[in-house]
Write a structure and sequence with these properties.
The longest helix is centred in the C-terminal third of the chain and has 25 residues. With 111 residues, this protein is an all-alpha fold. The protein is 64% helix and 0% strand.
């Protein structure tokens, strides 16, 4: 999966994870993917499913330290990258809508 010229034998765990991924996901996980937000979201999703950082490191070509930093610090929005902003705004709008609904329900009871 790495884009290096040397071919490296992947572990059984890495091969098992790769078999479960679609071609689009495999391309997204590449180290040199210009859409880092998409790659980082997928890394966090795989880590939350229990895939170990050393396996993610084998698949992506990133170091284990980089994987840990991405998973630990990932918020979905990076400086100058607004691709994750819409998702977060929708979540805020949904929460505000629920809050408004509950406030109106309470006001209706107190009349």
């Amino acid at each position: 999966m790495n884009d290096t010229s040397k071919s490296k034998k992947l572990s059984d765990n890495a091969i098992a994870v790769l078999k479960q991924l679609s071609e689009k996901q495999k391309k997204t996980l590449r180290r040199n993917n210009p859409f880092k937000t998409d790659r980082n979201e997928l890394l966090c999703e795989l880590r939350s499913r229990g895939v170990f950082p050393n396996v993610l490191s084998e698949i992506t070509g990133l170091s284990r330290v980089s994987i840990w930093k991405i998973v630990r610090d990932y918020s979905g929005i990076k400086d100058g990258d607004f691709s994750g902003l819409r998702k977060h705004l929708k979540a805020v709008q949904k929460a505000v809508g629920k809050l408004t609904y509950y406030i109106e329900a309470i006001r209706g009871r107190n009349k």
